[in-house]
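User: Some background: our group keeps a shared notebook of sequences we're curious about, and every so often someone picks one and asks for a predicted structure to add to the entry. Today it's my turn. The entry only has the sequence so far, pasted here. Could you supply the structure so I can complete it?
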Amino acid sequence: MFTMSNTSSSIEDFRLSLEKEAYALGFSTFGISRAEISASTQKRLCRWLEEGMHGDMLWMRDRLEHRLDPQNLWPDVRSVIMLGMNYAPTKNPLALADDAGIGRISVYAQGRDYHDTIKKALKHLARWLVQKADCNVKVFVDTAPVMEKSLAVSAGLGWQGKHSNVISRQYGNWLFLGAIYTTLDLEPNRPAKGGCGSCSRCQIACPTNAFPREGVVDARRCISYLTIEYKGIIPQEFRRALGNHIYGCDDCLASCPWNKFAHPETSHPAFWPRAELAAPELRDLLTLKDSDFRQFFSASPIKRIGRDRFIRNCLIAAGNSRQSSLLKQVMPLLEDPAAIVRAMAIWALRQLDIQIFRALAKTAAPQENDVTVQREWQEV
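Assistant: Of course. Here's the predicted structure to add to the notebook entry:
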């Protein structure tokens, strides 16, 4: 059994063995951070919340004290083992931007649910650690109040770019993060060196201008937030900007020049895209009923947002496509049980055929019992 009273050479050997085990489990990067968050990061998070940039993600505020200090989440933690798993795509995610009949799904969601893959690997590594050392551990994959990005920077995995995401010299923007909190007092890595310099491609690429300043994302304007986290009717001002994004957005990530150093050939097999999700046809997606949706996305993170929100997103993409052939799939959704679906079906109809929209509005609007949906029948 390894203990921290061992010699410096045995401590180093233990660390190398731990890192080797991590790579054997499919992780691409490894580093160790102290169990602390810098004062500047704490201040930045508090300001972000005070400005309401978290939108409806109330859990960000509800467990703020746990995010600000790992020891508030677990008093016994002394070190954090930070790990990254490569999911670099083989094709440029921006290539489908002008393919109007296609729905664009974020790279990370085209394969299996990363939560399951990473948590399984983290648990294996945690068990190995407990067997080799006298310690306790806890594992986290972005569903807990853990500041993964800040800890990843402290652990040397990369730096936070102007889009706020971690950028790696070896893997560009394409790293899933996982954390192991441990009671072991391990020697930390040096924080990653690097930076974006004068480059601002990620900010320029954002269709909704979601970056009010460097390193800060206003979630309320972010396409990933709007298509995944937001539960309501997408605000009018963002609908055109969504283009054919139907789940998440890679525009800022894919625009980063550091991606030229990424290694798609070594991305984890679990994240290789399913053919049917790499470039899905809107006409097929719009016909999905709830049972079909659950079956189609059974092993995908997309399943978590539910059929109604997903169809809402697809209808916006259909409206933006200007392809009147999609009316066949859009029209039945005008009578969908879900208000957010009916609302976006009305909007899509207005974009695809204004004459049919005007003809139906006269009779359909008075029959609609949802005020917010009824407003969609008003021509603007």
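Suggested note for the entry: The radius of gyration is 23 Å. The chain has a mean pLDDT of 95.
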